[in-house]
Amino acid sequence: MLLILKSLYLYSVSLWVGALFFFTAVGAPLAFKVLKKEEAGKYTGAVFPKYFGLGYIFGLLALISFYLLVKENMTLIASVNLFLLLVMNLLNFVNGLLIVPKAGLLKAEFYRSNDRSYYDRFLKLHAVSMALNGINVVLGLMVIGITSLYLTF
Known about the structure:
The chain has one domain (2-150). The protein is 92% helix and 0% strand. It has four helices and no strands. It has helices at 2-34, 37-70, 76-113, 116-150. The longest helix has 38 residues, at 76-113. It is elongated. The two termini are 12 Å apart.
């Protein structure tokens, strides 16, 4: 059982952080570089549900499997790592279930009405979404670092 939990934790955190890093550093910027702005927006809008969906699955698997691995021996480092995983999950759920859908509605309303105020509000939410995603990348890299340097289970 221990081997399964270790594998589940390592695979889920690695795949989650890898996806976060790739989409943030390569996928989204490249889409806006090679596609027209509106087409790139449609592309990223189509990717987001799957991107966040994978984050929900991998994030919860990482959080639960890590907790099960360390619950009997909760060191300070393990507590920090658990806290970072919890924050990452929270940010991912807020971003994927609240901010991105609201931003999408504002952008759609802008295209429907051509009212610039909708686009301005979209840009603000988009900036928040990008910031949360960036924070998750940094936290995820910290989790991987902590796991590789300090945790033995």
